[in-house]
Amino acid sequence: MPLNTCAGGPDKEALALIAKINKEHPGAVCFASEMRVAKRFTSGSLSLDIALGGGWPGNQWVEVIGRESHGKTAIVYKTVAANQKRDPNFTCLWIAAEHYDVDQAAALGVDNMRVLVVPTQAMEFAYQTMLDFASSRSVDMIVLDSYPALIADEEQEKDMDEAVMALGARLTGKFFRKSGAATKRSMTDPDDRPLLGIVINQYRDAIGKFSPHGTPTTTPGGNAKNYAYYTRVEVRRDEWIQESRPGKGKVNVGQVIKVKTIKNKSAAPQQTATVDFYFRSAPFLNFARGDYDTVKEIMIMGILFDVIQRKGAYFQIDTGEYDDKGKPVLRWQGKDPMLDHIRQDLDLQEDLYEKILVASKKVDERSISEEDLDAAETAGKKTVSRRPKPEDAALNTEAA
To answer: How far does Cα 111 stand from its chain's mean position?
Structure first.
């Protein structure tokens, strides 16, 4: 009999069946209206949180993909640090298949006293440890860094000339089938400790395949994981950040990291976030090693979501206060004066942050593409196109 046969909800027979099932299996069936929304975990980056739909999804597994030295592990370190800052009891389990850099983690804001590290390359042991901690509800976050460094026991036991095909992919598929029970949390109990799971992976060239956009790529671990991950993001370095130093010229002190959501089951996919990350101290730019330029993010997101309005060469924030000409008090000619003001006004930063989060939810139909971000970043900049000289035109005519 259909569950919703009357306007008020399930009929008596359905309710009786629900009571019977819940008696034998407590909490197995509930109304969707009673289900709590899983907690989201901040990434530490405003633009990435918005691109993800409010942050990393709770009680799910996430894959962070990218080329070497593009910022994958840095993004995850910053996620740990940001959540530790919000919650003094936040604890992370880190499966260090490659390594765990204590100094780098600390520089990026991580409290190493609240990180449990398991240095192992044994795939079965790593996966079982992740399942055990997920089931125990004793940690808030589990990180595997990174999948390609794991090796299955059977492969470890064989000689170098003995091939083992797809063993890692089969074990990974098995892990995700078993992880459902380990990461399951109560649908109605808000005190059931949520969990964030992140697996770092790396791109490999896909030999024998075709791509219209350069070299075709794939990720180790088989195809099953692509269905199992709730969210998959691609991390790539966009450009270097340089600082001019007296007598030394320009030095690379950071990089602009762009993150694209290539899969997202709880928000729109193919969203893009950008953040300036400093991997080296930049004293002349006033940034320390491990910093995000969070104020620049606020400015770009403010322009993107119209919290900051552009009026020709001027930028303004409408706070309800106006000067004698009827213009907003917070008004600047050009981006640099505005950015300097926001950096110095902590209350304004907090106010803009909250307004941007609200605005980003109201315009859900808007795509945050690379073009949108580029338009927000370059807003107010003049583009000068050189008029061709007569001799250039003559040369072009002769060439034709």
So the answer is: 20
Gap between the Cα atoms of 123 and 129, Å rounded: 10
- The two three-digit tokens of residue 156, written as one number: 């470890």
Tell me the pTM: 0.88
* DSSP calls for 337-361: HHHHHHHH-HHHHHHHHHHHHHHHH
Of the residues 208, 235, 262, the one at which a domain ends: 235
Tens-digit pLDDT profile for the chain (400 aa)? 344 444 556 788 888 999 999 999 888 888 888 888 888 999 999 999 999 999 999 999 999 999 999 999 999 999 999 999 999 999 999 999 999 999 999 999 999 999 999 999 999 999 999 999 999 999 999 999 999 999 999 888 888 877 777 899 999 999 999 999 999 888 878 788 999 999 999 998 876 676 676 677 889 899 999 999 999 999 999 999 999 999 889 999 999 999 999 999 988 889 999 999 999 999 999 999 999 999 999 999 999 999 999 988 899 998 888 888 878 889 999 999 999 999 999 999 999 999 999 998 875 555 688 888 888 888 877 644 445 555 554 444 444 4
CATH number at residue 332: 3.30.250
CATH number of the domain that residue 106 is part of: 3.40.50.300
- Cβ 271 vs Cβ 304: under 8 Å: no
Q: What backbone phi and psi angles, to 5 degrees, belong to 316?
A: -145, 155
Residues 350 and 212 in one domain: no
Q: Which residues span the domain enclosing 342?
A: 293-379
The answer on 337 and 229 residing in a single domain is no
Structural domain includes residue 327: yes
The answer to whether residue 172 sits within a structural domain is yes
| 146 prior amide bond cis, ω within 30 | yes
Q: Is residue 257 part of a domain?
A: no
94 and 201 assigned to the same domain: yes
As a whole number of angstroms, the distance between CA 251 and CA 139 comes to: 40
Residue 267's nearest CA partner among 78, 55, 42 is: 55
Residue 122 buriedness (CB in 10 A; 0-12 / 13-18 / 19+)? middle
What is the Cα–Cα distance from 103 to 309, expressed in whole angstroms?
A: 41
